[in-house]
Design brief:
Radius of gyration of chain A: 22 Å
Shape of chain A: globular
Helix content of chain A: 55-70%
Distance between the termini of chain A: 13 Å
Strand content of chain A: under 5%
Oligomer: homodimer
Largest sheet of chain A: none
Number of strands of chain A: 0
Chain lengths: 362, 362
């Protein structure tokens, strides 16, 4: 809807600046159209929020991610300090908007896990079926996540009226047709953009190769509960929280790199089904890891019953198992992927495949 | 050492009775030699026991399992009520002798799990690293399992002096050279024993096919913590303990059938490496399932702290994960195995392979 895919013809004669301007104009336009809708949506739901953000917020998030990604990947052709500041502001808005739907999804995931683990359906009995601690743990998680979500909602409501957001909207208005490009942007698209896109793929590949992919591709080989990845010695790793965080961090970082590679492909309207899939797998990884932290934190609530704590221990382990399953899914897919955009990023495209619009995903 | 493998030559002319008598004589002889050693070993260790039974006890267990297995598999050629009674008495001794080493192994498994889950080694940090509940949960498990083992030890000591054991020893003495065979045993070995061995393999195959092998062969597909196998509707499955027990039962049953098939092969001194492996995998399954029950039971101890209960929840989930990993290992191996003893059980053996003695395993 808000996409402006390049045609093969246009791409063959365009400069790097033409292509980036066109894409940024489209995305900044989408941003400006979605912003009032998103503000209205947030204001309209004081209490309840869906796990999937409403359409205005979703469109806004899409545009924010893409503009930010392009300013990073093709940063060499933009005025440096402007691009850097813009990325900082976009990241601020991204984190702000993602907060509340994140809590809603985490709540759905954790309450669903408790329900599933304590389910008594004969076809799907869980290992906590009928356990006295299950309803208590469920109520505790529900209470804590509802509180967190309500707080996040207030913060978002307040920030959406802030001068900071208005300033960001002004930046986006400037982007429509007038991105502050450097001299380098006047070069041919293939000569200028391709090496920068290739660098994004290289960063992704290097980051992935540093992960224990072999272990991740062996079922149950990660031994997810017991043998977290090596923690940098300097951190000491005295406690489990920092060990888990250090274990998950490179995977979170990888997800950012996958998204950047996706958005780089979208600039030339290339399909990126493989990257979409990896992004989805890593999103599952991230959400399970975050949910595990929430379960562990809830178990430290003072004055809970041992039965409640026991159920939270099972839920924590269950979510770490989901983390391991996501790593396995990634480890299985990764080696099939080309480690570079060769064959994907051809400017101008060799065949007419470049005509298909980028798939409409988050 | 106590094996008396048939040679191909002997097998080709032997009757079913010859072969079974020879095997039973060997195993009953092993029983009678090992019994006083085992009694001495049990008496000699009032407090401490190894996870692997001492050699006299191990030899006794081996002989008990083999005699019992043969009396079952080739039951049609023995005097019925005698064979039935003998099997009952052998099973009694088997359960008795297995009790104490079982607790020792379970203790090693569970304390090892707590140590591993709470380990702070940078190369193998666990998700409970530094958790305050870990030493408490470890002490609780250690205390409860030591108590159970001490009780088991007293029971074993007492029963090893009982008239029941003397009567069983008398039965084994009778078996040496004088197994009460029926007329049918005078037939040719291949005609009489082969269909009975085949029936043991059929029972194994049928039992395995009824398991959710497809799910077990998919990594993380068993969804081990959440979706236990369908529980018979009549049982209601109101609580997790009965659901878990019902979920594990067919796998325990399968292990018995694997052992029977192994012992049937041993009668003709055939190697059974595939079955040995399956037996080991199912032993792991059984021990993890039992350990999970122990962790869940310990979590119901009155007046424990929430931190202790939380750790026990993680340990419970960890052991159920081991159960799932064992099922996966089984599901991967099973389809490669022939579902019948064709090519394994050839009486007389077609080639000279029958000469190799059966591997010395439990």
């Amino acid at each position: 809807m808000t996409e402006a895919p390049m045609t093969a013809q246009a791409a063959s004669t365009a400069t790097a600046g033409d292509i980036l301007s066109r894409q940024l104009t489209a995305q900044a336009g989408a941003f400006l159209r979605a912003l009032p809708l998103a503000v209205g949506e947030v204001g309209a739901r004081p209490g309840s929020a869906a796990a999937v953000p409403a359409s205005g917020t979703a469109d806004l998030l899409r545009a924010v991610r893409r503009v930010g990604g392009l300013l990073h990947t093709f940063g060499a052709v933009f005025e440096q300090s402007w691009a850097q500041e813009s990325r900082t502001e976009l990241r601020w808005l991204l984190n702000l908007l993602a907060l509340e739907p994140g809590y809603v999804r985490r709540s759905a995931r954790l309450l669903g896990a408790v329900d599933s683990l304590s389910g008594t359906d004969p076809e799907g009995t869980g290992m906590l079926a009928g356990h006295a601690g299950a309803p208590k743990a469920r109520a505790l998680l529900d209470r804590q996540l509802t509180l967190a979500r309500t707080r996040a909602h207030s913060t978002v409501l307040q920030e959406l009226r802030s001068a900071r957001l208005h300033a960001l909207a002004d930046r986006m208005t400037l982007l429509v047709g007038e991105a502050p490009l450097l001299e380098a942007a006047s070069g041919r698209a293939s000569a200028v953009l391709r090496p920068q896109a290739a660098a994004a793929f290289t960063a992704l590949s290097v980051s992935a190769q540093q992960l224990p992919l072999h272990r991740a591709a062996t079922p149950y080989g990660g031994d997810g509960l017991r043998r977290l990845g090596a923690v940098p010695a300097a951190r000491g790793a005295a406690d489990a929280d920092s060990a888990l965080a250090a274990d998950d961090a490179p995977w979170s970082r990888l997800r950012i790199l996958v998204k950047r590679a996706r958005y780089a492909l979208e600039v030339c309207a290339r399909p990126s089904a493989e990257l979409d899939e990896l992004d989805a797998v890593l999103a599952r990884h991230q959400e399970a890891a975050d949910a595990a932290v929430t379960a562990a934190t809830a178990a430290r609530t003072p004055r809970i019953t041992p039965a409640t704590a026991y159920v939270l221990g099972v839920v924590h382990a269950d979510q770490r198992l989901e983390v391991e399953a996501a790593r396995y899914a990634f480890g299985r897919r990764w080696p099939e992927l080309p480690p570079s955009p060769d064959g994907w990023l051809e400017l101008p495209p060799a065949e007419g495949r470049g005509h298909s619009p980028a798939p409409r995903t988050a």
